[in-house]
Queue: 2 jobs
Job 1
Amino acid sequence: MHVESFFDPATGTLSYVVHDGRAGIVIDPLRDYDPKSGRTSWASSEQIAAYVDRLGLTLPYVIDTHAHADHMTGLPFFRERYGARSVTGARVGEVQRAFRAIYDLPADFPVDGSQFDVLIDEGKRLGFGSLEVEALHTPGHTPAHMSWRVGDAVFLGDTLFMPDYGTARCDFPGGSAGELYDSIQRIYAFPDDTRLFVCHDYQPGGRPLAYQTTVLEQKRHNVQIDQHTTREAYVAFREQRDATLDAPALILPSLQVNIRAGDLPEPSANGTVFLKIPLDVL
Ligand SMILES: [Fe+2]
């Protein structure tokens, strides 16, 4: 089993390819989006594709850990180029329903997750080559959020960040600090040497990029939730902290794309795609 990471400095996002030399999965790829010019590109996903092509991997699945609020997902790129089936957590409809209202999308906008090829429930597994990936429902940051275990590695999405940065915010629609606490306890129940891979790194204090840690390191050193932190203390801390945070820069552009499994809205009559920015609702 091999894990290859790809870092997007513009959004601090880490994407992963997990493979056995023959078949692989891609976790949390992105579509680049420049909010100043409104220009999109597949430059980041092309970097992953170059790696996939160099090894000649097949890609049965491309996975989003959750509906991201800080970047547009790259699921469509891997669907179209490699025939990968797009996968996300079965409860994504709850996120779609919340954001259908926020964007005032038509009543027939599906909120059953049908834009994705595969909706996965807790404990379900998908095989690829000689490996398999198991879905772990880890709500808190979003209600549908899943972490993904392959062998001794867990891809955390936005549950935990590196120990020196802490944990994900829980103030988006359907988020819950108590649920995130419980999800993190699930992660902490894995063997101490379980490898953990984060979805973002913001390089606090200017330290070099880091994205891989272990259960033991998190339990000992996570600055927001170590092995002694009580649920009550964590929830109080998280809710207080979240109340001070600005909205992520790309939440409004991103979510309307991500709840469509990464497809852009239908173009206008002149062929241009427009995003909707609701004022004064977040
Ligand atoms: Fe997120």
Job 2
Amino acid sequence: MIIATAGHIDHGKTLLVKALTGVDTDRLPEEKQRGVSIDLGFAYDNLADGTRVGFIDVPGHERFVRNMLAGVTGIDFALLVVAADDGPMPQTEEHLAILDLLGVKAGAVALTKIDRVPAERVDEVRRQTEGLVSATGLAGIPVFPVSAMTREGVPTLREHLAEVAAALAERSRAGQFRLAIDRCFTLTGAGIVVTGTVFSGSVAVGDRLTLSPQGLPVRVRAIHAQNQQAQAGAAGERCAVNITGSGLSKELVHRGDWLVAPAVHAPTRLIDARVRLLASEGRPLRHWSPVHVHLGASDITGRVAVLEEAAIAPGTAGLVQLVLDRPVNTVRGDRLILRDQSAQRTIGGGAVIDPFSPRKGRRTQKRLAMLRALEREPAADRLASVLDLSAAGVPLSRLALAWNLDNAQAEALWRGADMVRVGKPDDPTGIAPGYWQATRDAVLAALGRWHDLRPDQPGPAEERLRRTLPERVTPDVMSAVVLDLLREKKVVRDGAGVSLTGHRPALLAADAALWERVSALLDVDDMRPPRIREIAEELDVDLRTLEQFFARVTRMRMVHRVADNRYYLTETLRRLAHVAETVARKSPDGMFDARAFRDASGIGRNVAIQVLEFFDGLGLTRREGDARRIHRPAAEVFALVEKVE
Ligand SMILES: Nc1nc2c(ncn2[C@@H]2O[C@H](COP(=O)(O)OP(=O)(O)OP(=O)(O)O)[C@@H](O)[C@H]2O)c(=O)[nH]1
Ligand SMILES: [Mg+2]
């Protein structure tokens, strides 16, 4: 469990942590000298029965809220410190608002310095504090009057924390490993160490991780979890991770960076979120306001694009797109805090809905509907809503990344969903059954239209057909739909394209007349049809025109191009195949050469060789050295040729 303090400057946070753990977390010389905490302090303690608790002591000074924010991110429990003499002060309220916006639900109030005031004052401050807290997610948390000087009340508070720690269900280790880096230093002998709160997943010595957003691959050499040497660390713990990597140096790593599993390294600068503007804000949050965005331990400047209305009124929440000046590592559900442009005031905060916003169309009704779908809980309902809005299907790997699902979580979610899963196993697309059916229908309809427009041609290549569809269909979904239709024999492959089953390219009228005359010339008893030039002369047709005609009828498989200048009817080829089979059968080893085939067919040496090479291409014969044998029976080969016809 990780506990962070919160509260106004000088209210006794650091002294209370010391009273609880024995550790003085103010270690900077400047902190000692001024008696003011500047940066985060860390202490660890075994409160009871070995439950190890990490304390993060935050500074209360208004100038150091930035550091406070880096400390309270990802914690389990907040210890709100209010001095009984001062009572609630500005940073009491600001820190409380921050805890509320971060969604911290567990905590306690420590009323400190009770040795300095009469009992009535303690009661008064208790009432004031309870009033403030009651308006937040921490409403109803217990209040402990203490004095860190006399130690009065400290044992009671300590007992309470021990009970909470023992009762706190161990944080789920699901999700990919993500640690929000708050410090980086070098240790002699060990090298670079980064520390921070583990947001999700777990890490073990030897793991390969990525420093994000830099994208630097690193390896884990050693781990301290909650300040103790360990083989592994997990969500809900503070970890110090000793990392190595080529090109890695201390100067490259800063507070706000992340140490993550390589699978969730996906820096982004456009984030959709729902943010609430604090009721204390004097003015609405207008479109394109410059802000500081605190996410994890980072502080990044950017702009707020307000998506629904012109502005978000104080005390209300709305959908926004955050346009960041620098990339950040984030996933759905990450909490964030907004501070004003000059970083003096906390103005609001909320949670990430989509870490990968589109560049265009961020305010369209369609996009807003998608954002509302992406907000839904639990994940199964959310997925169903997203599928419902995604006619083109949902890239599931991207979703797993955005939602920080590990493989087991993702698989369980996909399996439980009512969707058709298509595409490569490592990059699947999910599509709702209704859209799947609609896409199948659209493909069949488009193919029908294609045939209607080009009755003389075979069907288009899959990719070409995809582009004619009225709605966007991704190549993966298209391939899957075509495969499905092929399986059901609704379409057939036709050379490089697909056609509706039963589609027979019809000759255009002009071609049909020419075909009459050409086929008469090709249909020869001696199995040696004239060359194309001879046909052109014979019929008195322009050679180029005839060549184009042959290209068309070849596509329709009415003739076969055996050589550049010679075309055959299927029937003639079938007879020649029969000759080849007879020659092979007569040969003792089944092998025959071109000469034997020429003699048996009587078509002459050159044409015999051209025909044999064409047969090789069909798979009817196979050449071995100077001879050939029958590779597949002619009946089988021609059955296939006909099927496509
Ligand atoms: N009498 C009395 N003095 C206290 C008590 N707790 C803290 N103090 C004193 O109050 C002053 C501030 O205490 P810190 O613990 O440094 O306060 P802090 O909240 O950590 O202050 P920042 O970190 O700067 O926000 C110190 O001089 C403490 O000795 C207490 O319970 N009783
Ligand atoms: Mg302090």
